[in-house]
Design brief:
Chain B: Pfam families: Acyl-CoA_dh_1, Acyl-CoA_dh_M, Acyl-CoA_dh_N. The complex is a heterodimer of chains A (401) and B (374). Chain A has 401 residues and is α+β, with helices and mostly antiparallel strands. Chain A has helices at residues 7-23, 26-33, 42-55, 73-85, 93-106, 109-121, 236-249, 254-270, 283-307, 318-341, 350-353, 365-377, 387-398; strands at residues 126-129, 145-149, 152-159, 170-176, 187-192, 200-205, 214-225, 229-230. Chain A has three domains: 7-91, no CATH class; 126-234, Butyryl-CoA Dehydrogenase, subunit A, domain 2 (Beta Barrel), CATH 2.40.110.10; 252-398, Butyryl-CoA Dehydrogenase, subunit A, domain 3 (Up-down Bundle). Chain A is globular. Chain A starts with 6 loop residues before the first helix and ends with a helix. With 374 residues, chain B is an alpha+beta fold. Chain B folds into three domains: 7-114, Butyryl-Coa Dehydrogenase, subunit A, domain 1; 120-225, Butyryl-CoA Dehydrogenase, subunit A, domain 2 (Beta Barrel); 230-372, Butyryl-CoA Dehydrogenase, subunit A, domain 3 (Up-down Bundle). Chain B is built from eleven helices and ten strands. Chain B has helices at 7-23, 26-36, 41-49, 68-80, 87-99, 104-114, 228-264, 276-304, 310-335, 345-358, 363-372; strands spanning 120-123, 139-143, 146-153, 164-170, 181-187, 193-199, 205-216, 221-223, 266-267, 270-271.
Chain lengths: 401, 374
């Protein structure tokens, strides 16, 4: 075992700090503070991605020949720590942790040349068309049809829970190209070059938190060239499974969780406990906060253990475990946030939550963010395969057949 | 970043695992526990032959100069095989001797231990367990050049078979103060030392020990009041890592055994492992094990790099204890009635995990300390 430390790493840290000093603007920090979801405010997240891409740091984990930074795991940690320290918004995962890595692995040379630059720079934003009204956890039952028409497909059907489709200019999606055989066998993976195609309609869905994060997308004979297919026709399920690997286990949840934990701790130190003191001094609260921190650290270390080449890196249950553990830890954290916010979490402050808002929070930023974050985070155990599905997958691996 | 064991460590793990596989099945363990409180001189000698006693002792003290990673690597295997020999309980005493200012008697005791002689018992715990060395309360007074120990220690494992005890005590200050703690080497049969020995729930022999005006010559004071707390921390840090590794090994074994049982045991004409409620419980066990293991491995790598603070160890200890109880309780539940019996290894693993959680401060205390200050 070996952790890289010492002067070279500190020199890298100085480089990161100098870069952040020169490039971080107040609106980016504000967007970070007003992030009430795993998805940061769109405009600032994409602007930040562009700034990082120009420096070669937008997708550090990608292969270097495709724009990766070639960092060691320790360097990636330093970068994440410094971003966390300044409260910067997380980058959106769709481009950088989903469709980008997928095309690098499975795209044609033409697809890579055409799409990867925009994916990396953030000039394009890709949304993910997977779920359908009757195909959630049972995704393979999807029915959005693509019918062959010469060199094109004609897509008809509907997608749902399409995050940020109203911001996207491109989409990757699963469609049904055959109803023969097993349901997994007739699925095809397609790329849409535009969200303004004839026959395509996006309708926003207002969530529990009051924000239109999710969308429905309707297709009425939308024309897509066959060249936009990834993998073979009717082999989209294996393409999707390949991508799920990135979606479920892809990024470190550690930095974001640690930042929210620090904010929780600070808020508890000033929050009246209703008994003449502050919540932070309540031994019962302290014990639960200690457990929460331990869970945050364990999730972070589980990620690091895999990245450091330990056994989880080769464990087929790892992606499902990581997804389950990180989502449930963020939910536990969010529950303690609304507990500390108390009454001050009840006012709905959608206007003040907008980046660049004229009005400030009613009490403080923590209280304003707590409830929408809590509500939004209920989705973490539902999306990307519900946690019940994840536990099924883990059990299938752990229990001998 | 490399979080894997080296080839040498893997070989050591393999050879220890194979040795225990051949010589220490569950029935053998039961017999050793029943006959002699978990200690069999032949097995103890074999472990010493493998270099396990000398493993992390400094080379100038007859040790192999191994790292904490070596320690963790072997302790996980011992936990997985439910080894009752007092290897782990003897660790902090030996480390305190190795790193403290031991005189001739201490050096001889340590050299004997390294070669497979008697374990050095660690007489440190008090009350309901000490969450940190600074809480030591048992008193010591100075008289001439000697130290006089008076008071009591609890849960001293392997004291009966030890020739020497490493004892922590306070010459000044109140419990909680870092200064004022001394560490002394005391012959187990010294005048004024009385053992009240008992079997422990996890198959070992423990003792509560009374010290009545026990005289310690200056040469056997391992650390005086400026250095006692640091010496205890230096002895306890690797010990806590090894203890957690042992528990993680036990958890891993429980997950495997329980998953196997769920696949084999049939009710209503089907394996009980086909029922979703049980499948999800087993998935939770597997996740608890992985959480604990990754926390162990990364904390160990930090310790190896000299970047592990006492707070990091607290967190590890409390988290492993909590996950261990979760895994142990679920293992018994999935096994049903048979899991309640002494006949199966399941309950023995469970009790080992419970013991691990209770010593060196219960999880409750550590979690609270973590919550109280960042």
């Amino acid at each position: 075992m070996n952790l890289e430390m010492g002067e070279a790493l500190e020199a890298f840290r100085a480089e990161v700090i100098a870069f952040l000093d020169a490039n971080v603007t107040p609106d980016l920090v504000e967007a970070g503070a007003k992030t009430t979801s795993v998805f940061a405010p769109f405009e600032q997240a994409m602007r930040w991605q562009g700034i990082l891409a120009a420096r070669g740091w937008a997708a550090p984990n990608w292969p270097v020949e495709h724009g990766g930074a070639g960092w060691s795991a320790e360097q990636a940690d330093v970068f994440a720590q410094e971003c966390e320290r300044r409260g910067l918004p997380p980058l959106l995962p769709h481009n950088l942790k989903m469709i980008g890595p997928l095309l690098i692995d499975l795209g044609t040379p033409e697809q890579k040349a055409k799409y990867l630059p925009g994916i990396l720079s953030g000039e394009d934003f890709w949304c993910q068309g997977y779920s359908e009204p009757n195909s959630g956890s049972d995704l393979a039952s999807l029915r959005c049809m693509a019918v062959s028409d010469g060199d094109d497909y004609l897509i008809t059907g509907q997608k749902i829970w399409t995050t940020y489709a109203h911001h996207a200019n491109r989409m990757f999606l699963l469609v049904r190209t055959s109803t023969e055989g097993k349901k997994q066998q007739g699925i095809t993976f397609l790329l849409l070059d535009s969200m303004d195609l004839p026959g395509l309609t996006v309708k926003k869905t207002i969530g529990l938190d009051g924000f239109p994060e999710q969308c429905e997308v309707f297709f009425d004979a939308v024309r897509v060239p066959k060249a936009n297919r990834v993998g073979a026709e009717n082999d989209g399920w294996s393409v999707a499974k390949h991508l799920l690997k990135y979606e479920r286990g892809g990024g470190s949840p550690g930095p974001a969780l640690r930042r929210r934990l620090a904010a929780l701790r600070e808020a508890a130190a000033r929050a009246d406990d209703g008994m003449g003191g502050v919540i932070a001094d309540d031994p019962a609260f302290q014990e639960r906060l200690g457990m929460l921190e331990a869970d945050v650290i364990s999730v972070d270390y589980h990620f690091r253990h895999a990245r450091g080449g330990g056994e989880p890196a080769h464990d087929p249950a790892y992606p499902s475990m990581m997804k389950t553990l990180s989502s449930e830890t963020s939910q536990a954290l969010s529950a303690m946030m609304i507990e500390v916010a108390g009454l001050e979490g009840l006012p709905r402050q959608l206007d003040a939550l907008a980046v660049g808002a004229n009005s400030g929070p009613l009490s403080d930023g923590f209280d304003m963010v707590a409830m929408p974050y809590y509500l939004n985070t209920r989705a973490a155990s539902i999306y990307a395969g519900s946690n019940e599905i994840q536990r099924d997958l883990i059990a299938r691996i752990v229990i001998p057949a | 970043m490399d979080l894997t064991f080296t080839d040498e460590q893997v070989m050591l793990r393999d050879s220890l695992g194979k040795y225990l596989e051949r010589n220490y099945d569950f029935e053998t363990r039961r017999a050793v526990v029943a006959a002699s409180g978990g200690h069999d001189p032949k097995i103890w000698a074999d472990l010493a032959e493998m270099g396990l006693m000398a493993l992390t002792l400094p080379e100038d003290r007859g040790g192999l100069g191994g790292s904490v990673v070596d320690l963790v690597a072997v302790a996980e295997v011992m936990g997985a095989k439910l080894l009752a020999e007092p290897w782990l309980p003897a660790l902090p005493g030996a480390l305190a001797l190795a790193h403290g200012g031991a005189g001739e008697g201490g050096a001889a005791a340590l050299a004997a231990f390294a070669e497979g002689g008697a374990p050095i018992a660690f007489a440190h715990e008090e009350g309901r367990a000490l969450a940190e060395p600074a809480r030591v309360a048992m008193t010591a007074t100075r008289k001439g050049g000697e130290l006089i120990l008076s008071g009591a220690k609890r849960y001293v494992v392997a004291a009966e078979i030890a020739t020497h005890l490493v004892v922590s005590a306070r010459v000044s200050g109140a419990p909680g103060a870092r200064a004022g703690i001394v560490v002394a080497l005391v012959a187990r049969d010294a005048p004024g030392v009385t053992l009240d020995a008992y079997d422990t729930v996890d198959g070992r022999r423990g003792a509560n020990i009374r010290f009545e005006a026990v005289r310690v010559p200056a040469a056997d004071v391992l650390a005086d009041e400026d250095a006692g707390c640091d010496l205890l921390n230096a002895a306890l840090a690797p010990t806590v890592l090894a203890l957690c590794a042992d528990a993680v090994g036990a958890m891993g074994a429980l997950v495997k055994i329980t998953a196997r049982y769920a696949a084999d045991r049939k009710q209503f004409g089907v394996p009980i492992g086909s029922f979703q409620a049980l499948r999800h419980r087993i998935a939770d066990m597997a996740m608890a094990h992985q959480k604990a293991r990754s926390t162990l491995i990364v904390t160990t790598a930090m310790a190896e790099a000299g970047a592990c603070a006492p707070r990091d160890l607290r967190l590890l200890k409390a988290q492993v204890g909590r996950m261990g109880r979760e895994v142990g309780e679920s293992a018994v539940q999935v096994h049903g009635g048979v899991g309640m019996t002494d006949e199966l290894s399941v309950g023995h693993y469970f009790k080992r995990l419970l013991a691990m959680d209770a010593i060196y401060g219960a999880g409750r205390l550590h979690f609270r300390a973590i919550g109280a200050a960042a």
